[in-house]
Model the fold of this input.
Amino acid sequence: MRTIFVLGDQLNQRIGALADADPSDSRILLVESDELLGLGRHVQRNHLVVTAMRRFAAELADRGFEVDRRRASSMADGVRAHIDEYDPDELVATEPNSRRARALCDRLDIAQVRSNQFLCHHEEFAEWADGQSSLQMERFYRWRRAELGYLMDGDEPVGGTWNHDADNREPPPDDPSIFTEPQTSELDELDDEVLDSLPESHGEQPVGIWATSRRSALARLRHFLDHELHRFGPYEDAMTSGSWSLAHSALSPYLNLGLLLPDEVCDRVEERFRAGDVPINSAEGFIRQVIGWREYVWGLYWLWPDHVEANELDHRRELPPMFTGESTTEMRCVADVLDGLRQRAWVHHIPRLMIISNLSNLYGIEPRAVMHWMWEQYVDGAEWVMVPNVMGMGLWADGGRMATKPYISGGAYVNRMSDYCGDCRYDHRKRTGDDACPFTTLYWDFLARHEERLSGNHRMARPLANMRNLSDLDDVRQRAESVVRGVREGRI
Done:
C-alpha cells in the first residue's frame, strides 16, 4: 500500500497524485504542522487551512480511502511518524507549492508527481521566459490566453482588444450598497473543534466568511457570478469604506488551497460572457487576474529564488506600531484597511498595493519584514504569492526586475479612487503643515531621497521633474522627518 502525502494547499481530488488514486492501493496522509500554525498567522488563516484539511480528509474517507490525519510539531515529524507506523511501500506527493516543502520531500525521499494545480507549470514558464527580451506580465498574459483559448475568436481576442484596463478605473459609486457581500456559512462543531486546537493568535475570530469545503467554495463562486461579476471590471481598482469586498470575488483563498481550480473558475466566467450576462471588460479583467497575474507571479517565484532577498532601495525601518496593533492611526484609509485585516484577514488588491505597500515603501520598511507581515495577515497568504507581489510589485525592492516603476502615490490617488479622504483628519492636497496627508508628504520625500536611483527610469521622469519644481521641497522634507517620527512612535 502506498501513501499519498497531501499538503494543506492541495485540497482537491483532481490535483497531481490524487487524480488517479484508488482506495484499494493508496492511503492518504495529511499533517497539521505546529511550525506553520505558529508563524504568527491571523486566526482566520489558521482556521481556514486546518478546517479545510479536516473536511477534505472526511471527503476522502467517504470515498473509501484510509486517511491518516495527524498533528505534529513539524511536517517532517508528522511524515516520519507515519512511516514508523504504516511502513508504506511508497511515499508520494504532488509537487509542493513552496521551496521549503519541496526540500522536505527531497530530504525524506518522497516521490513527486508533476502538479497541475496551475495552468502554466513553472518549468513551462521558465522556457517561455528564456526566449523573452522582457518579462512583462502583459506579454505572458497574451501568450497564455492564446494558448488556453479564453475570450478568443480564432487567433484574435474577442472584440479585437486584449486588455480592457482603460475601462476599469472607476472610483467607488456614491451608493456602495449596490455591492453584495460574499456568502457566509454557519460555524459547526468541526469549526469549534479546530478553533479549540489552534495556538493563540491574533485577529478576530471566524464568523463564517471563508468557505472551508469545496462545496462551500463553489457556492461562493456561483454567488460572485450571479451578483458581482458584471460590476467587477469598472470597480476593480476602487476602494470604499462602505463595502469591504465591492465587486471582488474573494475567491483567492480557495484557489490557493486547491478548493477551486483556475480552469473551472475561468470556464464559468467565460460562459457568463458568452451568454451575454456580463460585459467584456469585467470578464476580461477577471480572467486576466487568474490566468495572467496569478500564474505570472507563480512563475516568477520559481524563476527567481533570490527574489526574497531584494532591497534595492536599502530600506531598513521596522514595522510601525500601527501595523503590529500597538497603536492606531488617524489616517482614515490606513485605519480602515488595517481594521479590515483584523476583522477578516483580507482586503482586495488595491488596498494591498496602494495603501499598505505604498505606505511601507514611502516610510521605508525593510522589505522582508513587510513580506512576512503580509504573509501572516492575509487569509490567502502563501510564500509564492507574497515574495513576487511584495518584493517586485508592492515595494519595487528588486529595482524594476518585475515592475517597471515603483507603485507609489500621494494622497491625490487615494482621494480619486476612494471615499476615505473627505472625513480624514489629514488633507490630501497638502504636503506641509500638521494636517498635511502623510502619503502626500512622504511621496515627495521619497522622490527626493531616491532621485539618483530613479533618474534613469523614463516612467519616473515626470514625477521627478515635478518634484524638482517644488518651491517648498525643503519644507516638505522637514515635514517628512516629522511624519516618520510620528509613524514610528504611533502618533500619526
Remarks:
- Strands lie at 2-5, 26-33, 67-72, 91-94, 111-113, 152-153, 156-157.
- The longest strand covers residues 26-33.
- The mean pLDDT is 96.
